[in-house]
């Protein structure tokens, strides 16, 4: 969202009117879920997508017509096959799309996007609130009405769309080598807050990790003295060797983190597991660890493995936020993916 806020503020500063297009409700089979955003000006779509196809085509046309006007409103789109006025799409669902006109002649809009950028930089939970008709967008710290991270509210007789951001945890990446340098920009682009730690100062240079929020040179044996890991956080262990891995994993297992992933070959991860078992950790405790890390895409290079890790974190995040259906009972699936050492290993994935 930070990129979107910055783009809309830049266009506002450049005296260019835009329209923010948002899916605020969806039912049935739809190409994008609630919370899909797109920015449009008189030339057409300039950022984001609400799913492509005829839905996006019609929404872009509508937004181009609204550019520069003071109209804010919601329109229903039927994604049926064309019968009874549908858009001729095979999805078969229905969506409500909010069109919010960002006009250069409204100084309050510019002030809002400046506030939104500051709030997004803080990395703390906040709500974006968009009015269906009259009024200005808002940033709120808390909303008590309704349920879910995306909601439609009614206040003083007016409907509002509210979406929560930054409610998910932080990603702590242990190890600043080639894999971390490929992974952090991807995770940042996906909206994850990332911190990189290494015991070598040359591998904690922020310039190595575009999009990183923080870097720190640490002693892997003293992590409990500097980190307070919360249940919603993710721990990604991609250090340079099994000794550092064991130090970090030992720390990680004593935290309530929702995700602990360790990179490496099957042999390396088994070595660390056996070492920790001998130290007194139980098999149940060690089963929390996704090791080796990532999901199956046949990855071998650091860039490819970064994608497999990012995909796994997306999956975990979706499960946590209720965007993915969970099975009634835990199942285990086996995945094969390449390690950072070029070998092939088996990974157990919980769904």
Automatic annotation (TrEMBL):
Residues 171-313 form the XdhC Rossmann domain. Pfam families: XdhC_C, XdhC_CoxI. Residues 12-75 form the XdhC- CoxI domain. This is XdhC/CoxI family protein.
């Amino acid at each position: 969202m930070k990129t979107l806020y910055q783009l809309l503020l830049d266009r506002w500063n450049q005296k260019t009117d835009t329209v923010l297009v948002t899916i605020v409700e969806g039912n049935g089979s739809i190409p994008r879920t609630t919370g899909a955003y797109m920015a449009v000006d008189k030339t057409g779509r300039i950022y984001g997508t609400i799913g492509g196809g005829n839905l996006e085509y019609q929404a872009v046309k509508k937004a181009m017509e609204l550019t520069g006007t003071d109209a804010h409103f919601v329109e229903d789109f039927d994604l049926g096959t064309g019968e009874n006025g549908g858009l001729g799409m095979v999805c078969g669902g229905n969506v409500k799309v909010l069109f919010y006109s960002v006009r250069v002649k409204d100084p309050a809009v510019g002030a809002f996007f400046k506030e939104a950028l500051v709030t997004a930089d803080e990395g703390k939970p906040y709500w974006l609130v968009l009015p269906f008709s009259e009024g200005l967008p808002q940033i709120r710290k808390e909303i008590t009405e309704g349920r879910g991270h995306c909601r439609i509210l009614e206040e003083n007789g007016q409907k509002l769309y509210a979406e929560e951001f930054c409610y998910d945890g932080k990603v702590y990446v242990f190890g600043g080598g080639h894999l971390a340098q490929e992974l952090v920009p991807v995770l940042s682009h996906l909206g994850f807050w990332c911190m990189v730690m290494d015991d070598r100062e040359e591998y904690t240079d922020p310039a190595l990790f575009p999009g990183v929020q923080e870097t720190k040179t640490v002693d892997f044996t003293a992590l409990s003295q500097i980190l307070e890991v919360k249940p919603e956080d993710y721990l990604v262990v991609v250090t340079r060797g099994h000794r550092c891995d064991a130090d970090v994993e030992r720390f990680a297992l004593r935290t309530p983190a929702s995700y602990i992933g360790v990179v490496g070959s099957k042999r390396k991860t088994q070595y660390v597991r056996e070492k920790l078992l001998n130290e007194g950790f139980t098999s149940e405790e060690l089963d929390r660890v996704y090791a080796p890390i990532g999901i199956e895409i046949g990855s071998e290079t650091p860039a490819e493995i970064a994608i497999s890790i990012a995909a796994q974190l997306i999956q975990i995040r979706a499960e946590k936020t209720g965007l993915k259906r969970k099975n009634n009972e835990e199942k285990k699936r086996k995945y094969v993916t390449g390690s950072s050492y070029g070998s092939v290993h088996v990974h157990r994935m919980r769904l």
